[in-house]
Amino acid sequence: MCGIIGFTGKDQAQQILIEGLARMEYRGYDSAGVALEVAGADGESRLDVIRRVGKVSGLASELESYKESSTCGIGHTRWATHGRPSTANAHPHVSCDGRIAVVHNGIVENFAELREELTAAGHEFRSDTDTEVFAHLIEDAYTTEHDLMAAVRSACARVVGAYGLAVVCADEPGTIAVARKDSPIVIGRGERGSYVASDVIALIDATRDVVVLADDQFAKLTPDGIEYTDAGGNVIEPEVTHVDWDLDMAEKGGYPHFMLKEIHEQPRVVRDTLVGRMTAAGELDIDELGLSLEELNDIDRVYVIACGTSYHAGLVAKNLIEAWARIPTEVEAASEFRYRDPIITPTTLVVAVSQSGETADTLAAIRDARIKGAKVFGITNVVGSPVARESDGVIYTKANKEIAVASTKSFIGQVVSLTLLAMLLGQVKYRLTTKQCRLLFRELGDTAEQIQHIIDTQGPAIAEAAKVCKDAHSALFVGRGMGSAIAYEGALKLKEVSYLHAEAYAAGEMKHGPIALIEPGFPVIAVATKSPTYDKTVSNLMECRARGAAIIVVATEGDEDIKKIADHVIYVPRVRDAFSAITASVPLQLLGREVALLRGCDVDKPRNLAKSVTVE
Ligand code: AGP
Question: How confident is the prediction for the chain on average, in pLDDT?
């Protein structure tokens, strides 16, 4: 979704805003803008609003010729929801008198009726956005409250929806009003002033001690301090969180793209996610479990709820939980889950998987499941994120900051974490012995080295295979069992970074329709690692080959036979089938990236996408 930022203090605001927005650009890059507070010649303050369609770099060049001095301002980088990408729809949005400006991350669900009411009251709207109602609502309230914080609180009380909001007002120089509901807001004090942003990455070089504002909380930022209040205006003391990762982790570190850097970080992610997870006695140690072993033993149904890549990690988990713990497990698209009234009882475990921990669909599904009495377990990459806070227990994937919009290292962290959860459920259900768990844990750890081996050896094979897809119009990914879960992730990676249409199918399904798509040279990408269904997958590939498909296969090292039916073979080390999702997904991540480069796409910031989706 969008990224918002604000600074008030001793330094010039525009550079701080631009740098922060550039770091949050993965949240949306349809347009960018700032509102800067400037002291007029008459000593009267005013707001200068500068906006530009496209990436933050465009706004930065626009500001090069801007010479005014300003030590207080707000900024925004947009992922369009209401109103197409345009200068008029770019944030900040201002009140009729231009003396109040707002930036917003989220959605105002009742904007149409508010807009109608405000228009009838004489307000003039200049954009098609939902957000603009905030500027006019605050303007309206300010005429009676004559206090920005009070005006912002009363405006928020009228709004239905999600908002991370920052507001400046020319009549209250140096003040930034902040409000939060279902959208991320972090706030911090540095030596040079007060900062607010949608993501700590935008203010980490000013401070590491931040407040993650909770829902229905507000903050008043001034150059000298920050005051937090609740919806009633009562002063509150929120908890301060210390951020333990550094900016280097959010830089490319010499790689051409974040996506490649993050793929190469995956061996570390496996190791870090497993650190301290098994005691000397061979017992799994998941200290943030939040559920007693008795409660886990009572679990008789599991739902894994998630979106996108996280959903695909769920497909892997289903295979493992059913195999090791024999608990019926469903994987559900979070956006569908709550609207289909699923069967939930107190012995139902809902596992919510989310890299960002702020995906609105997943959060809404968690809340619904809790109301229905389910136990909720979160798998997320962001400490203190809403998914973590709203779950009974949580496992943090130790992937650190993931910048590239296409998830890679977080997927591996999720699969490793879900594998641990499946092992734990197998242990509490007395289906996995400590000895078996110890063996599985050791082999799981070995996947770190195996990923490194793939990265070190398969580059040329992947580059050759990518050429098959460069000018294709569509591609099919196939696999069986664990292979089909990986096929779905492979297809998503290719789609989202190279814009090449791709679908995934269980290999056995091909002959029931999709095989009709195949014509000479049509790319079929198969996951055919050694597994109980290997032979069946090979015969399905033979059927595709017979129709002239260009076959690309991810196969197990030493499998020479597969070369007879494949045009390109990408080899991965031999692993237990249960762990093949970890090793076989890496070549498909790299393949997606290679094809994207051949097609001239922006690998880190694919069109129309954003790293976290905070609206339903
Ligand atoms: C995957 O590469 C995409 N970024 C997207 O599908 C993502 O997985 C989805 O939006 C879910 O995000 P989450 O894991 O942060 O909840």
Answer: 94
Residue 180 has pLDDT above 70, yes or no: yes
The CB-side HSE value for 186 (13 A sphere, CA atoms) comes to 26
Return the residue whose CA atom lies nearest to atom 3 of ligand 1: 406
Whole-number percent of the chain with pLDDT over 70: 99
CA dist., res. 406 & res. 173, Å (int): 40
Cα–Cα distance measured from residue 356 to residue 397, given in angstroms and rounded to the nearest whole number: 11
Q: Comparing C-alpha atoms, which of 462, 408, 464 is closest to residue 603?
A: 408
pLDDT for residue 379 is more than 90: yes
Question: In this predicted model, what pLDDT tens digit does every residue of 484-535 receive, in sequence order?
Answer: 999 999 999 999 999 999 999 999 999 999 999 999 999 999 999 999 999 9
C-alpha 200/C-alpha 247 separation (Å) is 10
Q: Is 327 helix (H, G, I), strand (E, B) or coil?
A: coil
Is 544 annotated in the active site? no
Note the pLDDT of residue 346.
93
The DSSP string of 269-319 is HHHHHHTT-B-TTS-B--TT--S-HHHHHH--EEEEEE-HHHHHHHHHHHH
Q: What is the pTM of this model?
A: 0.83
Show the tokens assigned to 334: 């979070």
Give the largest Cα separation in the chain, rounded: 83
Q: Tell me how far apart the alpha carbons of residues 290 and 84 are, in angstroms, rounded to a whole number.
A: 44
pLDDT in tens, 67-84: 999 999 999 999 888 888
Of 479, 456, 436, 407, which is closest to residue 557 (Cα–Cα)?
456
SS3 track for 535-562? HHHHHHHHHHHHCCCEEEEEEECCCCHH
pLDDT at 372: 94
Question: Does the annotation count 611 as an active-site position?
Answer: yes
Q: Which residues pair with 176 in a beta bridge?
A: 168, 221
Mutate to test the pocket of ligand 1, among 417, 613, 615, 616 (most ligand atoms within 8 A of CB): 613
Q: What is the mean predicted confidence (pLDDT) over 590-603?
A: 97
In the predicted model, is pLDDT for residue 258 greater than 70? yes
CA distances 379 to 105, 350, 385, 387, Å, are: 24, 11, 11, 8
- Within 6 A (CB) of ligand 1 lie 307-310, 354-356, 359, 362, 405-407, 496, 612-613
Of the residues 2, 156, 307, 544, which is catalytic?
2
Contacts (Cβ under 8 Å, ≥6 apart) of 286: 277, 393, 395, 420, 421, 424
d(CA 528, CA 449): 21
